């Protein structure tokens, strides 16, 4: 196939530019006529470093979006190139939920991203590892449920007051001092004008066939899969139909060479990487049919590359006679071949860790049923779990185990925040009385619990099986459980609390009790006799004093006569 004049001209210009930079032109133009032309698209993940929190803090955002911050460098590298940007919605939500307290650099960064000409699609929240959750037993691709726990109404401005069209009369009612602010919703925090909807991007070499069904039922129509994870009938086509999904195949070998080039620390290493990438693209172009080959290059999001040379690498690819840069959507619209997933399951250790996360989150959700607003707990725990499942931990494998441990320890602390206060032994001396049980609530919202006392002894009968109690935030409350003493002696009773829906909270507490059955009447009689005696003694003493005073008065009169 002859070299096209325009491509040759562009190639010559790139060669001259490379020469002025000290880079051999051989790294930028293919010798001889290419056997075919490849359309090359790229996908670039825009993610934050790993975190152990549900949202990225304001301080971290300020650092990431500073002039030399990680997010600024990534956006500088990819903005207004042909690469499609895969955006982590955790970044969007973390900036927006801060309202008026968001760092100005983060707001500027977000505005700049919104004006980028790149195609965009959404990653899962925190770029969470999709397949490890599915293979650990999740019934769907996990997504956020609520951000209410993080919304501070004082950080969001109230809507502007309506301007009156006329002067109110003297009898007009006073205008309200202010209107309630418009608070963000989960949809508004995560929303973006994505150009490519309903696409899911698992980490390379982690997909199995069974995952596809769950992805489809979760609402996804397209999956990005690496070439080592799929077998295609026509390898010159990037698109394939797999089960009920469209599969975009990224080329493993070319993506590796592409990554080496964009992350090259020196011009010499970049030159060498470009030469290898050029040769590989030529080979892929030659393998295509008359319509040419389609290639998708993926920037590895599990490594800590800088992508400083992304722009120059893309320009060099576009200048090659054997390749054209293409948009990601044009690849999605290209004719698909047929494909079959080559199962590459997650490691047993990673699946086991994810299984623990899912079980812990389910336990936390059950505990949250005691709260007046359970979503203030479940929303935060869901986001924390997704952050712990982030693909960013692949770059810091030693940290993932500590992140798992932290998530579990937070769960233990959460469950311990509502509990029965351990008390000293209880004494019951009446035939009928109350056992006073104290429950503490360390949450920042009211909780509703049922107190259930079990007396596995014939000495005592509990007259009310369940006593409902509401405890205000960060406080304690004592509740009375009615009981009847049947016989004298000592025993141990069990005290448990549960949510209104019947979920047992914590572990039951045991307390010793001393029962004195039948003592109520004698003690009452004794107290009555004691009271009568005291009053009788007082009355008798008063009578004696008055008589004595009267006699003394009579005697004084007689003496005066």
Description:
With 561 residues, the protein is an alpha/beta fold. It is built from 16 helices and 20 strands. The strands form 4 sheets. It has a 6-stranded mixed sheet. Strands 1, 2, 3, 9 and 10 form a 5-stranded parallel sheet that branches. A 5-stranded mixed sheet has the order 13-20-19-15-17, with no helix packed on it.
Mean pLDDT: 86
Structural class: alpha/beta
- Which strand order spans the largest sheet, edge to edge or round the barrel? 4-5-8-7-11-6
* Helix content, binned percent: 25-40%
- Distance between termini? 158 Å
Low-confidence stretches: 1-33, 163-173
Fraction in beta strands? 15-25%
Question: Secondary structure elements and their pairing?
Answer:
Layout: H1 5-20, E1 38-46, H2 58-64, H3 70-78, E2 84-87, H4 89-96, H5 104-114, E3 120-122, H6 130-135, H7 186-190, E4 199-200, H8 209-217, E5 222-226, E6 230-232, E7 239-242, E8 245-250, H9 252-262, H10 267-287, E9 293-298, H11 310-319, E10 323-325, H12 328-332, E11 337-341, H13 348-367, H14 375-388, H15 397-415, E12 418-420, E13 426-428, E14 432-441, E15 447-454, E16 460-462, E17 467-471, E18 475-485, E19 489-498, E20 504-515, H16 520-560
Parallel strand pairs: 1-2, 1-9, 1-10, 2-3, 4-5, 5-8, 7-11, 13-20
Antiparallel strand pairs: 6-11, 7-8, 12-14, 14-18, 15-17, 15-19, 16-18, 19-20
């Amino acid at each position: 196939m002859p070299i096209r004049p325009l491509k040759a001209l562009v190639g010559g210009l790139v060669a001259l530019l490379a020469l002025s930079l000290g880079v051999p032109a051989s790294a930028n133009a293919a010798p001889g006529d290419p056997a075919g032309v490849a359309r090359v698209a790229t996908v670039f993940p825009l993610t934050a470093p790993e975190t152990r929190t549900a949202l990225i803090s304001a301080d971290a955002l300020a650092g990431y979006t500073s002039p030399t911050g990680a997010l600024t460098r990534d956006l500088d590298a990819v903005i207004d190139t042909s690469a499609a940007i895969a955006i982590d919605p955790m970044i969007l939500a973390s900036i927006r939920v801060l309202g008026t307290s968001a760092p100005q650099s983060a707001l500027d960064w977000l505005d700049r991203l919104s004006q980028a000409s790149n195609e965009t699609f959404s990653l899962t929240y925190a770029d969470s590892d999709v397949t490890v959750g599915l293979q650990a037993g999740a019934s769907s691709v996990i997504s956020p449920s609520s951000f209410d726990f993080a919304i501070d109404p004082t950080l969001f401005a109230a809507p502007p007051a309506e301007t009156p069209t006329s002067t109110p009369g003297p009898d007009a009612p006073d205008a309200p001092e202010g209107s309630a602010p418009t608070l963000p919703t989960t949809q508004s925090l995560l929303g973006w004008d994505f150009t490519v909807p309903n696409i899911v991007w698992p980490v390379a070499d982690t997909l199995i066939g069974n995952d596809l069904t769950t992805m489809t039922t979760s609402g996804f129509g397209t999956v990005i899969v690496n070439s080592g994870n799929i077998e295609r009938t026509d390898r010159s086509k990037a698109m394939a139909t797999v089960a009920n999904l469209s599969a975009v195949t990224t080329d493993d070998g070319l993506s590796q060479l592409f990554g080496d080039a964009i992350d090259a620390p020196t011009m010499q290493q970049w030159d060498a990487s470009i030469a290898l990438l050029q040769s590989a693209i030529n080979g892929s172009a030659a393998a295509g049919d008359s319509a040419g080959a389609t290639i998708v290059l993926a920037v590895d999001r599990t490594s800590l590359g800088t992508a400083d040379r992304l722009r120059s690498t893309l320009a060099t690819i576009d200048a090659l006679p054997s390749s054209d840069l293409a948009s990601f959507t044009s690849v999605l619209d290209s004719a698909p071949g047929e494909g079959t997933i080559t199962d590459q399951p997650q490691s047993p250790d990673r699946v086991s860790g994810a299984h623990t996360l899912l079980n812990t989150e389910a336990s936390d959700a059950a505990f949250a049923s005691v709260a007046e607003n359970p979503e203030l707990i479940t929303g935060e725990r869901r986001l924390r779990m997704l952050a712990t499942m982030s693909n960013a931990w692949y770059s810091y494998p030693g940290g993932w185990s500590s992140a798992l441990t932290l998530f579990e320890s937070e769960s233990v602390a959460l469950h311990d925040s509502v509990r029965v206060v351990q008390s000293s032994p209880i004494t019951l001396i009446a035939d009928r009385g109350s056992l006073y049980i104290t429950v503490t609530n360390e949450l920042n919202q009211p909780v509703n619990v049922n107190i259930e006392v079990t007396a596995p002894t014939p000495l005592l009968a509990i007259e009310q099986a369940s006593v409902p109690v509401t405890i205000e935030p960060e406080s304690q409350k004592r509740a009375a459980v009615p009981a009847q003493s049947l016989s004298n002696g000592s025993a141990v009773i069990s005290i448990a609390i549960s949510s209104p829906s019947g979920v047992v909270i914590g572990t039951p507490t045991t307390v010793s009790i001393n029962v004195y059955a039948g003592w109520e009447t004698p003690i009452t009689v004794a107290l009555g006799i004691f009271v009568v005696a005291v009053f009788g003694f007082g009355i008798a003493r008063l009578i004696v004093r008055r008589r004595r005073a009267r006699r003394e008065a009579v005697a004084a009169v007689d003496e005066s006569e």
